[in-house]
Write a structure and sequence with these properties.
Elements: H1 5-29, H2 32-39, E1 42-46, E2 55-56, E3 62-63, H3 65-78, E4 84-88, H4 94-99, E5 105-106, H5 114-120, E6 122-124, E7 129-131, E8 133-138, E9 152-157, H6 161-172, E10 177-182, H7 185-193, E11 199-203, H8 204-213, E12 220-222, E13 230-232, E14 235-237, H9 241-260, H10 267-272, H11 276-282, H12 288-291, H13 298-306, H14 309-316
Parallel strand pairs: 1-4, 1-5, 9-10, 9-11
Antiparallel strand pairs: 2-3, 6-14, 7-13, 8-11, 8-12
Helix pairs in contact: 3-9, 3-13, 9-13
Length: about 350
């Protein structure tokens, strides 16, 4: 009995479907990590200039807390912390640049919110800095509390959670204000310096740096009030879970390194350690790097390049910097803060 032409067609369709499924599977595997490796450099989006977080020094070299995180990811993924191309982005540009593939990673003092993940198709790879919104005011204003800012002129950057929090704070406290909106942080600070507003509002960590940019820093003060929770962290596209995992675990590795006592200067000592948790960290045991598409020593490479979390913090924001911002909530969980990371096991 001869075979029906429909049977042959169904078989052909089945084979074709299998081939296409294989093509799609290969395409899915060729994600951001593979692209970064093939390109040989990490494209990282940073701010246009926030003291302590991301700014160019007098030699044109990018420095800062967020910059160091990019370098740690490059060290883990590429074995070389210098293989990073930094792209300065305004608040209004940052998410489109990430979604459009202009950058592989956004490390730009960005607050983690539900709307940004659910509405923009993005994923925050943990919290690198626990912050909160505050106010920088002219000393001549004679106020020591945010509750004394009724009818004040307030400079704020457009397209930020700061703008939304500002409205919530004044409404909740039955106060009014005159909003002065600017497209970027530099223009908002310049307007504050020129007297176009009495108050500048941003995350408190940034305000300490903005004060130093003023012609007369002593004429302004950061109020102690914190009106919001601002969990800042690195952001990636939500359609690439393997890359999300890489960025997330580099973040966790820097925190774990501090808790384990592994610093940049102690890498060789860590490599000789017989402690199980240290051996897993260095890649001597567990082979966790392979599961993420990385080399076994990915985590220790990151620490060797940038230091652990404490080293990055102190160098850019803390006692070793011109800001001198106390760690506060950003201390380890066993040191009075809220910082901790899942175990590497």
């Amino acid at each position: 009995m001869s075979k029906s032409p429909w049977t042959s067609l169904r078989r052909f369709s089945g084979v074709a479907a299998g081939v296409m499924a294989g093509v799609f599977a290969m395409s899915a595997q060729a994600g951001t990590l593979d692209t970064v490796k093939q390109r040989g450099t990490l494209n990282c989006g940073v701010s246009e200039g926030v003291i302590g977080f991301s700014e160019k020094d007098d030699k044109g070299v990018w420095r800062g807390f967020d910059v160091d995180f990019c370098r740690a990811v490059a060290a883990a993924a590429l074995g070389d912390a210098s293989k990073v191309t930094f792209t300065p982005l305004s608040a209004s540009q940052r998410f489109d640049a990430l979604k459009d593939g202009k950058v592989d990673l956004l490390s730009r003092n960005t607050s983690w919110t539900l709307g940004r993940e659910a509405g923009l198709g993005l994923a925050f790879a943990g919290i690198t800095y626990h912050d909160g919104q505050g106010f920088l005011v002219k000393r001549a204003l004679g106020v020591d509390s945010a509750l004394s800012l009724d009818k004040a002129k307030v400079c704020v950057e457009a397209g930020t959670t700061s703008q939304l929090n500002l409205a919530d704070f004044f409404k909740a406290n039955s106060m009014t204000y005159e909003e002065k909106v600017f497209p970027n942080a530099a223009e908002a600070t310049a307007a504050f310096a020129d007297g176009k507003c009495d108050v500048l509002t941003r995350d408190q960590s940034a305000l300490h740096g903005e004060r130093l940019k003023l012609p007369k820093p002593a004429d302004a003060v950061v109020l102690p009030d914190v009106i919001s929770r601002e969990p800042l962290g690195p952001v990636v596209r939500s359609d690439d879970f393997p890359w999300f995992n890489v960025v997330k675990w580099v973040n966790f590795a820097l925190v774990n390194a501090e808790e384990l006592g592994i610093a940049a200067a102690d890498v060789e000592k860590a490599l000789q350690s017989q402690k199980p948790e240290v051996r897993r960290f260095t890649g001597a045991e567990g082979n966790f790097g392979k599961a993420m598409g990385l080399d076994p020593d990915w985590a220790i490479r990151a620490v060797k390049a940038t230091g652990n979390y404490a080293e990055i913090y102190e160098r850019n924001l803390g006692s070793g910097s011109k800001l001198g911002v106390p760690r506060g909530l950003n201390q380890l969980w066993n040191m009075g803060g809220v910082l901790y990371a899942p175990p590497m096991r």
